[in-house]
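User: quick one, fold this
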Amino acid sequence: MNTKTLYLWAALGLFSVVPNALVSGDYFTGKEVYDSGDAVVFDASPYNIDLYGGASAVYNSNTTQLLNGTGAWVGVFDFGFELESANQGGRGIDYGLGYDGGAYWWESSAAAAGRDPLEHRVDGYFQVNGGKTRFRFTADYYRNNGNSMDFNNVQRETRTAQSNDLTLNAGLERDLANGSLEFGAGYLLRAFDSNTFLNDQHSYFGDVAWYHRPNFAPKTSLGVGFRFGTDNYQNNADQEFYTTTLRWRYQASGKTTAYGSVGWENRGVAGGQDADNFVFDAGVVWAMSDKTKFDFFASRSVRPSYSGVGQDYENLGFTALLTHDLPGLFVLNASAGFDNSNYFASAPVAGPAANVREDDFVRFGVGLSHPVALTQDVQGSVSVFYNYNETDSSLNFIDFDQHITGIRFGFLY
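Assistant:
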């Protein structure tokens, strides 16, 4: 997939990059600067830069994601840039920096629900490539004003809450004779605006793994790993977790890969009782043909609640993305996701016992896009799309459903 196609899909919200929860440590993710893989490198320029933007007209049937929420028309203007060093993948230093901006015009003040119409995201990376050792640091800051309606950013628990989100990750990898030794560390901050009444998050993690490539299966890496860290959520007891996992990777080609991990997590709760949990994740990126690509990710995890007091929840879910090139340069995108979340009391709390609940979160989307020739240097695209989101909860007031449909015109320079 080239960078230009990725940006157009991402703007529609129909391309989802799902993190490997036990390996990457990301609880949620946004756009990151990626290697284009097919960029033309000129000796005169030490970097490559892309500018992109678009305008969309959207109808949102539930602008606040509440039971019997308000429907309204929305105008969306997106804009941004990506800068990358030109010599990607070679020995030496790689770097990248990106910015995403969004401006939202809501049909009425009731639909806007007090949200700031502007959103911003800044992300980047710095990587050092040696002969056998690689180091990479990534950073992502997102001023989330609750306006986003795309497939990847629709969030069941926090809905349209406004927050400042910061993610930092560092990784070190050393090649061995038949495998690799890998270290990782990260930090995640999610600070909600005071009027949301949600629980701020501070999470830290460390990770170490050893992979071995057996001689009889050179495309497969088998490994063991250990992950540890803390989850500190406001109005929830501080928690420490330790996870031992078996991991595997399979890379048939540059376009077809699979990965997974399965393990046992011990989660210690301050003032509460320790708990052991079975956790796993698995994913595949499969080029089924020259025209069809399939992306799938599934996981089971346990984490504290953003909305509850003294509550954790077990989450089992998956996301899938299918893209297919149609005749006439049309591209069809289809995405689907499902999450089952079971809440439980993680520690004693003052006052009435915490309400436990079970949520089923379903979402899917479909889109059709076509390139438009603007100029020799500017590529355009027109797209139509439809997304559906629904939460069915054992607590009726948590329920909501949402239909989103629209058209977008975009460009990439």
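User: anything notable?
Assistant: The longest helix spans residues 3-12.
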